Amino acid sequence: MSATIDSNPLLDKLPEHLRQFIKPQDYKDYTPINQAVWRYVMRKNVDYLSKVAHNSYLEGLEKTGIEVDNIPSMYGMNRILKEIGWAAVAVDGFIPPNAFMEFQAYNVLVIASDIRQLEHIEYTPAPDIIHEGAGHAPIIANPEYAEYLRRFGEIGCKAISSARDYEMYEAIRLLSILKEAEGTPQDEIDAIEKRVEDLQNDMGELSEMALVRNLHWWTVEYGLIGTVDDPKIYGAGLLSSIGESAWCMTDNVKKMPYDINAAYQSFDITKPQPQLYVTPDFAHLNQVLEEFANKMALRTGGLSGLTKLIQSNALGTIELSTGLQVSGTFTNVIQDNGKPIYIQTTGATALSYREKELVGHGTLYHAEGFGSPVGKLKGINLAIEDMSPRDLQAYDIYEGGRVTLEFEGGVKVSGEIITGTRNLQGKIIIISFKDCTVTHNDTVLFQPEWGIYDMAVGKKVIAAFSGPADVTSFDLITHVPSSQTIKAKKSPAREELEGLYQKVRGIREGKADNKELQSIFTIVKQNHPNDWLLSVEIAELLQKNNTTELLNQVMTHLDDVKNRRPEIVHLVDGGLELIFEKEKSLD
User: Fold this and answer.
1) Which residues, 6+ apart, have CB-to-CB distance to 523 below 8 Å?
2) Considering the domain boundaries, does residue 135 fall inside one?
3) Across 236-377, where does the E strand assignment appear?
4) How many domains does the chain have?
5) What is the Cα–Cα distance from 167 to 174, expressed in whole angstroms?
């Protein structure tokens, strides 16, 4: 578990705005109880999922080096994941959806390094290392699925969000933290659950990001594969939940063929899912993803894409037909006959070509915003971008000439041309003017005293997407989460119990004598009568060593715990089944 293992080189390629979410995994923070929770869940999972999970799961556990007995070290995982072209990073709980997707686009698995409490051993709404490490990591060893995950991230991080989406993210993050935290008052949980429910019921028209999040949920998190009548599990949410992985296989959960309609099916993160989608194979996931991407502003552009960016009130980018990309906060669009004829950003804006900022066109130069006509010149079939040098001169579009360009829709640009900027194919993408006036009918859009006017060249908007074209153009180091995960409280009783778990772990690993089990059990029974998992671990060791008398005492104690705590009966029985079924199989 040493931190001296070399980092995965994929991590060195991550941009700074993603690095802000990474936190170190301090392996010493995992307590003996945490390790016991991991071991219980993994033993149950490997036993049960070997029957109902896609065969990539068990193969992936072996390939990714994830052990049943020990919480994985991020350093060790990176060393092994490197062999299949992936990496892993630790984060604090939920991170914004766009960032989560972008990590995937870099082939980096995001792992919430905290682990669920013993009280939530079956399921937690909070992302944790069981969910990420035991759920996501094994399946990415399948090349077809790994490509789906990467491609999903690449497309998903470009999805345009609404202002409500971020409110929902913050509310769900807080809910997951409070539900996982020890001793949170029920009224606090009720209040934030109501907040989440109210938001879910008042999201309006779903944004692209909301639709992408739905697709992610019904595939990456809760996906089934095979046939509706004989499905197997591949979704990480199911693979990491010993309760829901069994529940989902019953007739209580409706199974439906997976298609693009899943994007419009919402979900409740706090409850078992009433329906699940079944894909015939991993290749089908990519087909549906491409079908969905074809409907995104990323590929359709146009007025609808610009409208989505304006409504998002967040940093976004449009790409023109010349390849010129304008990144900023879009605040206005003038339209004519359903087409954008003038676009406007407010505040810091950058111009790029092929995701690289153009020299001299960064946010310092365009600090107050950027506006430009879009489309063809009125009465001329040939767009500016398609004009040859001779055509440009014929229409007086050349350096040093004074010209009035009237566009379809009524935008006029009048001024003296200083210079033009061309792309690699030789097409003009920017024309710079001095002494320039830009108008639309009676509205003045730019005045000479404002300085140089840089006009973007493009007959149409071919793409619109979230975030900047060049991630280095803007300061994106802004993540200040409104809530932090809450660590389990320490007390003398808790520390004593942790010490007992550590002793049992030491006995199992051959570092201590079995004779100590009697005294450990006596203390558990007297001082920690409601704890069940340690007694199950003690029973495992006693069964292995044929210590019948003490084993009978432990089993009697567990019966007593089950009588007092009916909610954990199935957990105790599940743990004991593993012990005694294994014993039977050896006979």
Assistant:
1) 496, 500
2) yes
3) 254-257, 275-279, 315-320, 324-336, 339-353, 356-357, 369-373
4) 3
5) 11
Token code pair at residue 370: 């950027």
pLDDT along the chain (587 residues), means of 10: 58 90 89 94 87 89 84 85 88 82 93 84 77 83 92 95 74 70 76 76 78 94 95 91 86 96 87 93 97 97 96 95 97 96 98 96 97 96 91 90 94 96 89 97 96 97 97 80 60 91 93 89 95 95 88 95 94 91 51
Domain boundary among 192, 222, 252: 222
Taken in order 457, 458, 459, 464, the sign of the CA dihedral is negative
Instruction: State residue 204's pLDDT score.
Output: 66
Question: Taking the CA of residue 274 as centre, how many other CA atoms within 13 Å lie in the half-sphere pointing to its CB?
Answer: 4
In DSSP notation, 542-563 reads HHHTT-HHHHHHHHHHHHHHHH
Write out the two tokens for 317.
């980018």
Examine the domain organization and report whether 460 and 534 are in the same domain.
Answer: no
Instruction: Report the C-alpha gap between 384 and 394 in whole angstroms.
Output: 12
Task: Please tell me whether residue 414 adopts helix, strand or coil conformation.
Answer: strand
Establish if 264 belongs to a structural domain: no
| Residue 193 lies inside a defined structural domain of this protein | no
- My answer on whether 73 and 123 are in the same domain is yes
Domain encompassing residue 565: 492-577
Asked if residue 537 and residue 458 are part of one domain, the reply reads: no
Residues 439 and 509 both lie in one domain: no
What is the C-alpha radius of gyration for the chain, rounded to an integer number of angstroms? 29
Can you tell me whether residue 339 is helix, strand or coil? strand
Residue with tokens 């990519």: 286
| Angle between helix 208-216 and 143-156 (nearest 10) | 160
Same domain, 530 and 429: no
The encoded tokens of residue 53 equal: 């999970």
Q: Is 136 annotated as a binding residue?
A: yes
408 and 452 in a common domain: yes
- For residue 259, the model assigns a pLDDT of 97
Find out whether 449 is annotated in a ligand binding site: no
Q: Does 221 belong to an annotated binding site?
A: yes
Residues 216 and 103 in one domain: yes
Q: How many CB atoms lie within 10 A of CB 65?
A: 15
**The CATH number of the domain where 399 resides is what?**
2.30.30.100
Cα(33)–Cα(493) distance, integer angstroms? 13
| Distant-in-sequence, close-in-space partners of 390: CB < 8 Å, separation ≥ 6 | none
